């Protein structure tokens, strides 16, 4: 009997009248066919009787995989090559990401150092003038005049760095940019108006560097009940 017809008889006996295999009604040879043949495969592709499929040079077992089946060597080599390519691509991408992250951190540090150096460089002439003022002789009025010139020079440097002063005297008290250290009762001025600047505040565009210390008007007649 040919292998295909013999296999067909085995499946007919096993599954035609029952969903389970009655091993007592089958020969040892038929049971061996049931164990070695995938019921969903083509019977013509089954290994010959008495030959272990794992020993075939054209198929490869897939151990450790649930429901694994034997696959041709060519298919196994193709899948393995694709897997190796994916692993290699992932390793390259990881290395590129790490290099980009390190490069970005290094560039951030370089930019910060460059910005600090550029700002400090503009203040060096101011320091030079302070040192010259300390060495110079003269009256107190001459020293005061020299210090005023140096302060103006420093303000010019701050403006070149886009640093602006916080508006204070005459402005309405703003807790976002002002810090009140005292209140002065006045009935001739609007309530919560900045009366005096104690320490100047600075900001760069919308970013506050430090608030201005001020004294604020307290007008009891304008207080809301």
Structure description:
By secondary structure, this protein is of the alpha+beta class. The protein has three domains: 1-51, no CATH class; 56-161, Hemagglutinin Ectodomain, Chain B, CATH 3.90.20; 163-222, Roll (Nucleotide Exchange Factor Grpe, Chain A, domain 2). It has four helices and eight strands, in the order ααββααββββββ. The protein has helices spanning 3-15, 28-36, 73-135, 140-160; strands at 59-60, 71-72, 163-165, 178-185, 194-199, 202-204, 207-210, 212-218. Strands 3-6-7 form a three-stranded antiparallel sheet. The longest helix is centred in the middle third of the chain and has 63 residues, at 73-135. The protein is elongated. The model is unreliable at 14-24 and 38-51 (pLDDT under 50).
């Amino acid at each position: 009997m040919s292998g295909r017809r013999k296999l067909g008889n085995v499946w007919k006996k096993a599954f035609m009248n029952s969903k389970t295999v009655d091993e007592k009604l089958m020969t040892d040879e038929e049971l061996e066919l049931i164990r070695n043949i995938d019921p969903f495969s083509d019977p013509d592709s089954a290994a010959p009787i008495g030959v272990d499929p794992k020993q075939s040079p054209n198929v490869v077992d897939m151990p450790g995989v649930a429901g694994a089946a034997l696959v041709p060597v060519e298919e196994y080599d193709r899948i393995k090559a694709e897997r190796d390519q994916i692993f290699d691509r992932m390793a390259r991408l990881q290395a590129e990401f790490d290099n980009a992250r390190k490069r970005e951190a290094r560039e951030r540090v370089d930019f910060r150092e460059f910005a600090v150096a550029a700002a400090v460089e503009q203040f060096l002439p101011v320091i030079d003038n302070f040192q010259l003022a300390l060495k110079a002789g003269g009256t107190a009025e001459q020293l005061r005049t020299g210090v005023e010139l140096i302060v103006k020079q420093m303000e010019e440097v701050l403006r070149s760095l886009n640093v602006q002063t916080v508006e204070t005297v005459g402005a309405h008290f703003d807790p976002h940019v002002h810090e009140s250290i005292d209140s002065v009762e006045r009935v001739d001025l609007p309530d919560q108006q900045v009366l005096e600047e104690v320490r100047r505040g600075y900001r760069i565009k919308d970013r506050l560097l430090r608030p201005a210390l001020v004294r604020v008007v307290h007008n009891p007649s304008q207080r809301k009940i």
